[in-house]
Amino acid sequence: MSLTLSETSLNELKSYYIDKLKTLLAIESTYDEGTISDGQPFGEGIQEALQYMLALGEESGFQSKNVDGYAGHIEWGNGEDLIGILGHLDVVPGGEGWTHPPFEPYVEDGKIFARGAQDDKGPVMAAFLAMKWLHELGFQPKKRIRLIMGTDEERDWQCMNYYFKQEEMPSIGFSPDSSFPVTHAEKGLVDIEVTNSIESEEGHALQLVTFHAGERLNMVPYRANATLTGESLHNVQENFLDYIEASDFNGTAQLEDERLHLTLTGESAHAQEPNDGRSAWLGMVEFLCLLPLAPSLKESLTAQHRLFKDTRGEALEIRSEDEMSGPLTVNVGYGTYENNSLNLGVNIRYPVTDTLERWEPTFREQLQSLGYDVHIREHLAPIYFEKDHPLVQQLLDIYNKHTGEDAVPESIGGATYARALDQGVAYGAMFPHHKSTAHQVDEHVSIDDMMKAAFIYAEAIYTLAN
User: Fold this and answer.
1) Angle, vertex CA 145, rays to CA 43 and CA 131, nearest 5
2) Of 9, 98, 201, 351, which sees the most CB atoms within 10 A?
3) Do residues 94 and 136 lie in contact, with contact meaning Cβ atoms separated by under 8 Å?
4) Is Metal-binding there in the keyword field (predicted)?
């Protein structure tokens, strides 16, 4: 069977891809506790995105199934064996600082911009396009092909946990939520909550009323807000503006009703490499440590800054690194102070040859010695396939054939749905030359790259299904 396209057919597929992806990207599919109900366990927007994709599948001649709103799939073909393609439709919050609103997708310079364009709606649509194209060519797969779409990847993976209690586990598969050529290893991932109760500041000359930074553990905080009251607020205001002027951050300081409201903005990035961003949490904590706050609060903030200002775990004494997957990374995804309680959400990603048991006791001891409570909220162990594993090599060969490269398998610090499969790896859809914009302002993908990914996925499906 020839997997070739005329220029006319290519343009038609590209137009279809752009049109359907823009509609999907316009749906604000972020977790929304306020609209949770039966059949939409993560909120209205996420459910709307799932229903849209399932309807698209049925329109294209496939079978679609909604699994109680937790996830859904689009299936094609017959046979006992099942090939799974796992992606997700939920996205992180849009955030601020965009050139255009994050859920008003637009095309510019051959790229499509919107929250979720790269992570993961663009790649999911590319995988769907691959299925649709093969179907229209008349391909008859000898195995069942199932595009499985999750809805809680950016939080706790409740979607996949629920889905695979109800549905069949694919015999083999891949996740289009990483980068090419093929990912054979993913770091371990741990989400940790750290809390500390502080003695009351009442009566102190300068008081921190509230402090809030960040939204998600898997994002470098873009914005931090702090409110102070007490004496010398004009001096604090001037000092903050001087601090902003001398730093890489932006910010404002407004004095209103005897309260000083500070806002600091940095640059968001995916937590798998915190150094790609500038943490607004870290910037605000650094400034607060310069103020004459109550001793117990200042001591705790100073300890936070000392322990978490580097992203490699040096001060925490948990650093590790291996050749296969790189260094351990530490990201404070959110930090708050209110009602004398300090709270941190910490995301740690550790190398595939490391273990939670090696570093977790040291981390816990460091924080507990300072009066913090430590609670592990989630742990995903590393996954690892040998580079010569048949699935890894098969997918790698297809990529190299399409690109003319002689690439080798790679590892990542992210966590993909490949972990939800008994036998699966992450495969695209980002190309090595494309800078990651996942979780960042002005997130985007190259349309030509996504079309190329769709053709790679089509051959992968064709090969695996035969």
Assistant:
1) 85
2) 351
3) no
4) yes
Burial of 135 (C-beta count, 10 Å sphere; 0-12/13-18/19+)? middle
Q: Looking at the annotation, which residues are catalytic?
A: 90, 153
| Coil, strand or helix at 245 | helix
Handedness of CA 218, 454, 407, 462 (dihedral sign): positive
Q: What are the pLDDT digits (tens) for 60-115?
A: 999 999 999 999 999 999 999 999 999 999 999 998 889 999 999 999 999 999 99
Q: Is 367 exposed, middle or buried (0-12, 13-18, 19+ CB in 10 A)?
A: buried
Q: Residue type for 331, please?
A: N
Q: Identify the three-state secondary structure at position 307.
A: helix
Q: What single-letter DSSP state applies at residue 144?
A: E
Look up the domain containing 167 and give its range.
Answer: 7-185+384-465
> DSSP per residue over 349-368, as a string?
EE-TT--HHHHHHHHHHHHH
Helix, strand and coil percent figures for the chain, each rounded to 5: 35, 30, 40
* Domain annotation covers residue 124: yes
Q: What is the pTM of this model?
A: 0.85
C-alpha–C-alpha distance, residues 47 and 50, integer Å: 5
Same domain for 175 and 249, yes or no, is: no
**141, part of any domain:** yes
Whether residue 268 lies inside any domain: the answer is: yes
Nearest Cα residue to 47 out of 332, 55, 97: 55
Position 73: which residue type? H
Q: Do 173 and 73 touch, CB atoms closer than 8 A?
A: no
Same domain, 25 and 45: yes
- 2 occurs within a structural domain: no
Place of tokens 């749906």: 27
Each residue of 307-355: pLDDT tens digit? Answer: 999 999 999 999 999 999 999 999 999 999 999 999 999 999 999 999 9
